[in-house]
Each structure stands twice: as C-alpha cells, then as structure tokens.
Amino acid sequence: MRMPVPPSRSRCVLVFTRTPLLEARAKRIPAARALFACARARVLAAAVSSGADVVLAAPRGPAPERSEATRLLQRGSTFAERLANALADVRALGYQQIVVVPGDVPALERRHLRAAFARLRACRTVLGPSPDGGVYLLGVRGDFEPILAGVPWCTAHVFKTLLANAGRAAVLPALADVDGHAHLRALRSVPKLDAELAFLVAALLARAAWPPPAVSAVSSDSHSSPFASRPPPLVA
Predict the structure, then answer these.
(1) What CA–CA distance (Å, rounded) separates 127 from 37?
(2) pLDDT tens for residues 111-137?
(3) Which member of 8, 61, 100, 125 has the lowest number of beta carbons within 10 Å of its beta carbon?
(4) 125 has which bridge partners?
(5) Helix, strand, coil percent content, the chain, rounded in steps of 5
(6) CA-wise closest residue to 159 among 137, 182, 144, 189
C-alpha cells in the first residue's frame, strides 16, 4: 500500500529495487543474496544521508530496512511500466526533483546523489552511466515521460537512448552495477574495494569456478527454470 506523506522538501531519492532474494534470482546468481543485501543497504544508507527524502519502490515483500524511507508498491507488467508508474507516484507526492537509483550498485555513495541534485538545478536530466551501456542513476526535473519514450531497457543502448531523449543532460562518472558473473569480475577490479565487498565477491567467484553438479535425467518434466525470464533492473 502506498503511504502518502507530505514531503518536507521538493527532492527525493527513489530507490527502485527488489528484495535481495528476488534480486539474486533475477540476476541468475542465487548464491549472491548476501551481496545484494549489502548493496541495497549501502544504497539506502547513501540515500538517507544525501539530505533528500527517500522513497523505496519495491514489489510486495518485507518492509524496508530503513524506517526513514517511504514505501511505494511497484505497479505494472513490464519494467518500463513499473518505472514510469513509480515516477508518477512520487511526483504525486509533491516531489519536483527525483533521482532514481537501483539497489544493485554497491559503490554508490552520498556524493553521487548530491552531485546529481546539484546538476538538476541547471539541467532537467542527469544520467549516471554504467560500463555496460546502461545507467545506474536517472535524475529528472519536470516532465519525465519524453525521456523514457522508447528506451530499450536491458540492452547496451539504454544510456545512449536516454541521452538522445533528454537532448541536454548532465552526465556523472560511471559506476558498475551487478547484473551477472561478468559484473562480479569487473567489481573485483575496482580500486580500493573495501574488505566486505571484496570478501563477498571473491566467495561468489570462487563458487562459480567449480563445475555445476551433474543432473540426472530421471524426469521428463519440462517446466522452465524460474530464472529463465529476468525482468530488467533499472540499470540495464
């Protein structure tokens, strides 16, 4: 249920995410639940310390970890619909400057969010690109529908399309998200990776190095894997 509260300010960080369990399943890294829990906790902490209000848009599930966050239920059958609806719901609460981030960017810090809001004063759109062609941050001021039009989410063309739609946008330094094992290897190479993240990433990469156990063909059940269809995250 949406919890409408009168905003004390006109700015908010919209954390568009899933539970760590759902994130791990969707990214086809079922053993990465602890990593995604760490990433989401860090994103929420950065959002709370940014000085803006925090809204958590998530599917049905456990209450948000931070009591400072207002919760919205994601609505829609596709990622594009869920994101557009979340932005509309946040705008209906009275926020004018909205910075959207996912919960799978463990390197996100308060400084990135503050930089985004600072640039929104002069630009109506702020983008934080990911190395894979997606984005880890989308900041909007005013009408956001034209910016989202025709974006091919979950492809390497997300950033380019958003930039073209915006016409003029401020671009922040790139940050990596975690969408699969290749992203784990990229995260491991980040300079000055802290001990907690280094341990979680190393454990997952070591686990992936072992061959999967053999599966006996004793059943003709042809049900698809629950990981066969992955709804795209914000950072595509």
Answers:
(1) 24
(2) 999 999 999 999 999 999 998 899 999
(3) 8
(4) 140
(5) 35, 15, 45
(6) 137
